[in-house]
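Protein Record: Sequence and Backbone Structure Tokens
======================================================

Structure line: whole-number tokens from a learned vocabulary of local backbone shapes, matched to residues.

Purpose: to set a sequence beside its fold so the mapping can be learned.

___
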Amino acid sequence: MNPIRYLHLDVFAAHRGVGNHLGVVTDARGWSDAQMQRFARWTNLVETTFLLPPSAPGASYRVRIFTPHKEIPFAGHPSIGSAHAVLECGLAAPVEGLLWQECGAGVLPVRVEGEGTDRRLLLQSPGERILATGSDAHPLFAAALNGIGTGTLPPALVDGGRRWWLAEVESEAALRAWQPDHQAIGALAHASDSMGLCAFARSGHADYQLVVRALPAGVGIVEDPASGAANGLIAAYIAHAEPHGPLAGGYTVSQGREIGHDASLTAHIVDGAVWIGGRTHTIVDGMLHWSDC
């Protein structure tokens, strides 16, 4: 297999070193499913993506997303990072400010704002369905939220590309200090076929209006430093529950400080459509030498 350009990215990062890691194989033509899975297992990143020519009409490119264990149809930070790689490598150009990403969730628009280090990419979430609401929506929910009080909105199980339990909690300070019971969250996740629990709190900070902690115990991850898909569901839920509230048009998210990161995500809500994005930085840009030998 000939050398292939490979990028290691820091996604949803206001500056380098505080976001979510992503590996991108920029030309996966000729790679089998097994080869992609083997490489994703070797990188041991939460997700690794593989770029391909589009097969759907109107798409700018196609992306396949792999965890170390399986392929998944959609995820937020791999989508934003892959779009960044497409632009950096000149694989496609935006048309009227949009790239169109083909993935397992369909063909989704990515909005390109700005240029260079100031460039922000925002992905339109694939839509959401509220499956259940209330603290009594599942018998295992109370144990998963043990040790922290709830906020204004009722908890909800929401599906949209990924399935998450969402819970507003009492305050930013309480959320940041909370010691989650990951075993209880894992039990809830497996019983409800969900990623896990995503807790959020409103904030009066000048730089962000929401604090988020994503705990995807359902896929074996303790805590995620920056979660595009989960934040898309939170934004959609807030817009649905409080259509005239102060956050209904969008806001900025702080995520990951509790595990040594400091991600910044932007939520825009326009005519009911949810866009989640932020900045991405290229950390490593090199050549990949990989074979099955």
Observations:
- The chain is about 20% helix and 35% strand.
- The chain has two domains: 4-126+278-288, 129-276.
- The longest strand covers residues 280-288.
